[in-house]
Amino acid sequence: MFPNLKWLDVSSNKIAEMPAFKLPKLEYLDISNNNLEKVNDGWQGHANVKVFKTVQNKFKSLSQFKAMPKLEILYAANNQFTALSGWDGMTALKRLHLRRNKIEKVDEELVPLEALEYINLRANKLAGMDQFERLFKNPAIKDISVLNNPIESNVSSFNVIVAEVLAKNPKIKRFCKQDITESNLLEAVYFKQFKWTKSEEERKRKLAEEKAKEAAEA
After folding, report:
1. CA separation for the pair 103, 87 (Å, rounded)
2. pTM of the prediction?
């Protein structure tokens, strides 16, 4: 049925389960605003879908959307994701929108996506840089937003978090909706030097303590 259909919008209906329809030429799919929680067991993905919208549903994992090798843009705001994981079957993904979910962590073993350039994690629950930094494994990443996450309140100023991000990945061009400037890059260099100096001071302090302890016990 509908073997040549390229555009399908079933948003704002009352679909209880994402059906396992087979539309070989489908390129655009919108299932938003249905309160969907699961995908039919017969779902085999779609080889040609490039844009997929699933906003305002109740999905908990990206892994349910398997076998979408040509997917470039995914809109999945306002769902129930608690971790960023399961995007293995989206190898062509360039833009990922995950605003207003409940994401607390980024999977440590998350497979890097070679084409991913932009990810919006605004209004989630990321608290630590260690989680955030895992996104840098994606070699093409250059635009990230983590506005309204706990990570913002864990630093003294926005400039500090920008400097820390650029110290880890100077290829970032835009952060939290602000373009990166030469001034930001320079601050990152000073920040990296400052962190190294503090680390060296701490290392030497601990070394001196150990030597003093050994001398006292001799």
Report:
1. 14
2. 0.88
